[in-house]
Design a protein that fits this description.
Layout (H helix, E strand, L loop, with lengths): L3 E4 L5 H15 L6 H6 L2 H9 L6 E5 L2 E9 L2 E7 L8 H15 L4 E7 L3 H9 L3 E10 L6 E11 L4
Parallel strand pairs: 4-5
Antiparallel strand pairs: 1-2, 2-3, 3-4, 5-7, 6-7
Helix pairs in contact: 1-3
């Protein structure tokens, strides 16, 4: 199997969940209440990856998954790249392929939610043509019930080619 971007196989969902957990802990855990991070162990992310309603995209290099993207309808829910995959264009390529899939699903506008404080992610999305449209509160699970976390809503008009 060659390198590049393709739809994930079912047998890769555990590895995707592990990548999701590792990058989430690195980039987002510190931006949320400690109770959220305490709840979100590796098993949480593996289970979440196995429940994606649509097979995610994966970016591979030398046969190894370095990043993935997943969406539902018009909302990009996940875009995660391991540190060794950054600055290689993997994030941008996954984002573009996700936008194309969302457009192919009949949507003219895509949205995503980025944690307030995740400035590097927000700058990345803005460089890719996304814009901040609102700040909102989302619920995140904890062992003691949900807590609210602040997110930037970002949108992008999907221009037909």
């Amino acid at each position: 199997m060659g390198d590049g971007i393709r739809t994930a196989r079912r047998d890769e969902l555990k590895e995707i969940g592990q990548l999701y957990h590792a990058v989430w802990r690195e980039t987002q855990a510190s931006l949320q209440p400690a109770s959220v991070a305490a709840y979100r162990d590796e098993a949480f992310f593996v289970a979440r990856a196995r429940r994606f309603p649509t097979a995610p995209l994966v970016a591979l290099s030398q046969g190894r998954i370095l990043g993935f993207a997943a969406w539902t309808g018009c909302r990009l829910g996940q875009l995660y790249v391991l540190p060794e995959g950054r600055s290689l264009g993997i994030g941008r390529a996954l984002l573009e392929r996700s936008e194309n899939a969302i457009r192919a699903g009949g949507f003219e506008c895509a949205e995503l939610h980025c944690l307030v404080g995740n400035d590097s992610a927000r700058r990345f999305y803005e460089r890719c043509g996304w814009r901040h449209t609102a700040t909102l509160m989302e619920e995140a699970e904890t062992l003691n019930g949900p807590v609210e976390v602040a997110c930037w809503e970002m949108t992008k008009e999907l221009v037909r080619a």
